[in-house]
Design goal:
The protein is α/β, with parallel strands linked by helices. Helix content is 36%, strand content 19%. The N terminus is likely disordered.
Amino acid sequence: MKVVINAGSIGTAVAAEVAHVNAPQLQPSAAEAIRTLLLAANPLATTRLRLDEEVRSIDQAIQRGRHRDRFELATQWALRIDELHSHLLRYRPEIVHFSGHGEAGALVLEDAHGDTRLLEASDLGRLVELIGKTIRCVVLSACFTQAQAEALADHVPCVVGTSGAIPDSAAIVFSGAFYEAIAHGEDVRTAFELGSQRINASGVSDRPRDVVTPTKMEAVAPILLGNADPRTIRFC
């Protein structure tokens, strides 16, 4: 038996179906991931810090954000002075968060043998100038990092540091509030102000995370530097 389909009787429906099958299927483009690199260093000769708690606080804060699925979080522990350039090249991050010790003009890292090494502010600034083109924000969660922040400010839109010592608990509180705001789509200025407000509201009184221990040191509020208006910078 021969079946003849009269195109005239179904014309429009068939044509529409053929057009649908043959048309290219356009998928919505996925938003680019926000690459966030968490670097932690606590050399053997330095005071023990709750770095794992700070990283956990950051991760949980991002998970509470509306844009949590946009973030790619990479963590590198026991950061060595000869590895920093490799991590920046590998991850090409937009946000870099350093958690550890600082002293006037340098970050306190370690070498391959676990010995303490100082990364001077000028060397840090030059490194980011060379291979940190993707970086839009650096958070230095360590004591005495104003000089380091100033060295980065010419090369990075926004840098957070501190002029003095900061307790462990204050660093954890600030980081949680800062990244939760970022993950909800707030600008860097708002995230910074919220983190600073949370420090003041928490009444922290832990021992400052300093390397050169003064007889008495009060915690200080973070500072925000950079070469761009932080009110215009959003990651989501």
